[in-house]
């Protein structure tokens, strides 16, 4: 599973290109990507979940840990393109109350303006 990072107007977009599973090291990779991306002081992130059809509990936990780290920097992580199965899991554990969730990338980026 690959994770790309793009920057647009001081907002970094993290793009996992596959499911996030502990067994495949997806949770650790997600955490590392956010740590590396924030190393330059970036605190505004969007997470593109259009290509993620499944996130296990470890990956959801790493996402919450990344959010807490980014909050320490004075920033936020906004989600977009969340697939139904992933959204259902997030609602089940109330993560939809922690994250702003948008349908499209431009909406998530515009929320920072």
Count of helical regions: 4
Which strand order spans the largest sheet, edge to edge or round the barrel?
Answer: 1-2-3-4-5
N/C terminus separation? 31 Å
Shape: globular
The whole-number mean of residue pLDDT values reads: 91
Low-confidence stretches: none
Percent helix: 25-40%
Report the strand count: 5
Biggest β-sheet description: 5 strands, mixed
Helix and strand composition category: alpha/beta
Helix/strand order, N-terminal first = EEHEHEHEH
- Rg, alpha carbons: 13 Å
User: In percent terms, what proportion of residues is strand?
Assistant: 15-25%
Explain what the structure shows.
With 113 residues, the chain is α/β, with parallel strands linked by helices. Helices cover 39% and strands 24% of the residues. The mean pLDDT is 91. It has helices at residues 26-38, 57-72, 84-92, 105-110, and strands at 2-8, 11-17, 44-48, 76-80, 100-102. It contains four helices and five strands, in the order ββαβαβαβα.
Name the descriptors.
113 residues; alpha/beta; five-stranded mixed sheet; 5 strands
Give a brief description:
Helices cover 39% and strands 24% of the residues.
Secondary-structure map with pairings?
Blueprint: E1 2-8, E2 11-17, H1 26-38, E3 44-48, H2 57-72, E4 76-80, H3 84-92, E5 100-102, H4 105-110
Parallel strand pairs: 2-3, 3-4, 4-5
Antiparallel strand pairs: 1-2
